[in-house]
């Protein structure tokens, strides 16, 4: 009996302890899907709410063809649509770097595409904290499929060196342009290096005849989508990525079940569509149209009547093919019964491309790709940096909701960390919490739905091979301190503008001209906040001009107008290029005359003395003598002699000879300047008793005494005074009047008359002719 009582007590105690122990919450799976060059208006256009600021959207899309995207419709209506979502950069590389690292592009070491060359992208640092490493440290199995672009196989940025357990896809940007690749990278592999190239020999000579299935002919069906096979004899990268992603999901789910939900999976799926839809691998410069991956156009078959419409049909079909990835993803998660336990984040790396193909016959505005917003890819305007972001998690996020929480893709790392339940005080989050990113997970989770506010956002793109390097860095800075306003400061090709997006979503009204006080208030906040750093590690232009100004890019020409002490303002705003006159607004690029300290505002005090005269006097004496006479006498002696004679005679001797003749007769000695110590070179008004230097200019009137040297030119009339030196012969012309006897007879007669005076006296006297 006693033993039974002890057993009952122990059982009750064990049950109470098990009930009192908190249950370990299972973390959800995470899938991040990134499209390539997908415009914000190319998906889900059936709903005018997708563009709440464009009031004419519904009427305009009725006259345009809408791309059919049922998968994205299903994703958006089952989750939350983010209407204030921005990419980290308007080009691929910097946007993907910021997404993985959580570093804002204003302080990122990668702010441009193709910094080295096509085959070597800028790699992630060997010890760089990133999203894959963070999730792996919290028990996730990590997978990556598709476009990487952050380091080649032998660099420190290879995906298997950055926290990914499995990888399959393109490593560099140049490889990602091939829809029919000759090879793809795979990790892990049974090789010495641990990775390998998966070759596709059938793609070595890819062509439209070989790879593309022709309409109305026998084509195989895609086993995943049930549509026509996208290539009949070639390996299509989009299809390979889709099949490998579904394989990774099955593998991650199996490992998670084996570990009782303790090891969920993280899948980073980076497709290359619609960007690479028109590229041929071996004839890339031609960019042949019919190398599109889609062989059937379905509802877009009516667009095949002309070449331009054929291009539009391909674009619509490629985007529809991207949508099939989402359909396959949702179906796979639902089949495994893990759809409610998986967070799906859909986004695009930047806005739509300006053209697809060398002929430029596709207009991205045909499908309302930017919702009428200004700008495209590589622009920091809204059309180039807005992303069609959607987040789907049925367990925590209410279906069909819309969030206007402003965010940039470098915020996604902390947001995912908040969604999966990582404590904000966890040491693994410290590298990401002090660099500018924030978490907005409380603004979208149904249980909290708290208001979300932040003070600023920053997006940047710097010089690259496809952009004029002298344009420097273009950026968009958002001033969100006032919750009623949405100010956006745009720096685009030397020009700085300010827009208020709540009232001006298409960025047409520059507040610099209508509200300059707000402009300078936002500008000062941006400059003093130091939200960006100089971009020098890989930019040759900035490195050569390092340490001069805030943004290290010179203007084409410095200003040629003299400064007046106050800036001027042009009445007509410039459209492109630098101006040749000083402006009221600060420029983002330095002039050729560097200042002592970098400044971001127009100067109000005089700067260093210039060599050109100013209209207003300076506050400090000049270090060099002026080239112009002073209008007023100075109070202190000058540092050096003046180049221009003074207006009033000076009581002290000058250091240079005077230009006017002296009014005082000279002494019997040669005139010597007391300042210079050299004889005077100008004629005297009074006769001198000592020989002077010969003057190259004949005197206007005869002197009272003999000169020491003869004149340069013969006189027209006989001299009234006898010559002080005898000549060697007769003069050039006969004398009409008797000459006076010479003081010194010549030693010998001359042989013939000379036409010019001699410098030496004759040794023999001349004989006088008889009349």
From TrEMBL:
Region (Disordered), start-end ranges: 549-771
UniProt biased composition (Low complexity): 661-692, 749-760
Bias (Basic residues): 761-771
Superkingdom classification of source: Eukaryota
Compositional bias (Polar residues): 557-584, 632-651, 700-743
UniProt xrefs under Gene3D superfamilies: Alkaline Phosphatase, subunit A
Annotated SUPFAM superfamilies: Alkaline phosphatase-like
Protein name: Sulfatase N-terminal domain-containing protein
């Amino acid at each position: 009996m006693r033993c039974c009582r002890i057993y009952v007590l122990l059982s009750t105690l064990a049950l109470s302890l098990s009930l009192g122990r908190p249950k370990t919450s299972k973390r959800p799976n995470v899938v991040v899907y990134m499209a390539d060059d997908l415009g914000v208006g190319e998906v889900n256009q059936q709903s005018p709410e997708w563009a709440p600021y464009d009031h004419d959207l519904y009427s305009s899309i009725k006259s345009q063809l809408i791309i059919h995207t049922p998968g994205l419709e299903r994703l958006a209506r089952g989750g939350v649509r983010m209407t204030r979502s921005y990419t980290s950069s308007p080009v691929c590389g910097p946007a993907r770097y910021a997404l993985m690292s959580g570093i804002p592009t204003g302080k990122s070491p990668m702010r441009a595409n193709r910094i080295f060359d096509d085959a070597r992208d800028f790699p992630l640092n060997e010890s760089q904290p990133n999203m894959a490493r963070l999730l792996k440290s919290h028990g996730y199995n990590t997978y990556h499929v598709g476009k990487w672009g952050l380091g080649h196989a032998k660099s420190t940025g290879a995906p298997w060196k950055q926290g990914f357990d499995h990888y399959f896809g393109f490593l560099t940007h140049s490889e990602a342009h091939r829809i029919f690749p000759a090879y793809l990278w795979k990790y892990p592999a049974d090789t010495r290096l641990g990775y390998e190239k998966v070759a596709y020999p059938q793609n070595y000579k890819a062509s439209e005849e070989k790879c593309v299935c022709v309409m109305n002919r026998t084509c195989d069906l895609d086993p995943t989508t049930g549509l026509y096979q996208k290539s009949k004899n070639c390996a299509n990268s989009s299809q390979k990525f889709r099949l490998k992603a579904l394989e990774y999901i099955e593998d991650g789910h199996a490992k998670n079940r084996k570990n009782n939900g303790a090891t969920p999976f993280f899948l980073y799926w980076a497709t290359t569509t619609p960007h690479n839809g028109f590229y041929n691998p071996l004839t890339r410069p031609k960019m042949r149209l019919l190398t599109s991956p889609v062989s059937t156009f379905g509802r877009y078959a009516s667009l095949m009547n002309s070449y331009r419409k054929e291009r539009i049909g391909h674009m619509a079909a490629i985007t529809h093919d991207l949508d099939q990835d989402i359909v396959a993803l949702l179906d796979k998660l639902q089949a495994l019964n893990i759809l409610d336990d998986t967070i799906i984040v859909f986004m695009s790396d930047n806005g739509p491309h300006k053209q697809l193909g060398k002929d430029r016959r596709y207009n991205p505005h045909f499908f309302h790709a930017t919702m009428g917003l200004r700008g495209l890819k590589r622009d920091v305007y809204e059309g180039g940096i807005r992303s069609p972001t959607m987040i789907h998690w049925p367990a925590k996020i209410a279906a069909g909701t819309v969030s206007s929480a402003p965010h940039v893709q470098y915020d996604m790392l902390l947001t995912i960390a908040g969604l999966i339940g990582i404590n904000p005080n966890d040491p693994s989050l410290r590298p990401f919490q002090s660099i500018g990113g924030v978490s907005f997970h409380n603004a979208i989770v149904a249980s909290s739905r708290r208001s979300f506010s932040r003070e600023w956002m920053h997006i940047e793109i710097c010089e690259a091979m496809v952009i004029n390097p002298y344009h420097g860095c273009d950026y968009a800075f958002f001033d969100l301190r006032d919750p009623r306003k949405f100010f956006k400061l745009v720096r685009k090709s030397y020009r700085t503008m300010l827009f208020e997006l709540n009232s001006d979503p298409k960025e047409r009204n520059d507040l610099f001209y209508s509200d300059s006080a707000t402009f300078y208030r936002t500008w000062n906040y941006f400059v003093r906040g130091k939200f960006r750093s100089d971009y020098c590690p890989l930019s040759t232009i900035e490195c050569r001009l390092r340490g001069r100004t805030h943004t290290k890019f010179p203007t084409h020409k410095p200003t040629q107008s003299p400064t007046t002490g106050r800036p001027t303002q042009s009445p007509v705003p410039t459209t492109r290029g630098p101006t040749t006159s000083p402006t009221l607004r600060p420029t983002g690029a330095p002039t050729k005359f560097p200042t002592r300290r970098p400044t971001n505002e127009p100067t109000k005090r005089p700067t260093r003395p210039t060599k050109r005269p100013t209209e207003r006097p300076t506050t400090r004496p000049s270090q060099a003598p002026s080239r112009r006479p002073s209008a007023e006498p100075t109070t202190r002696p000058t540092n050096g002699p003046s180049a221009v004679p003074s207006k009033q005679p000076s009581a002290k001797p000058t250091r240079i000879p005077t230009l006017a003749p002296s009014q005082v007769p000279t002494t019997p000695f040669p005139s010597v300047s007391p300042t210079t110590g050299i004889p005077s070179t100008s004629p005297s008004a009074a006769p001198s008793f000592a020989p002077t230097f010969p003057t190259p200019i004949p005197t206007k009137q005869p002197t009272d005494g003999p000169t020491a040297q003869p004149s340069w030119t013969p006189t027209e009339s006989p001299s009234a005074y006898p010559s002080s030196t005898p000549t060697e012969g007769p003069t050039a012309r006969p004398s009409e009047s008797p000459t006076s006897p010479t003081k010194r007879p010549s030693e010998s007669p001359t042989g013939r008359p000379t036409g010019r005076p001699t410098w030496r006296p004759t040794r023999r006297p001349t004989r006088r002719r008889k009349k």
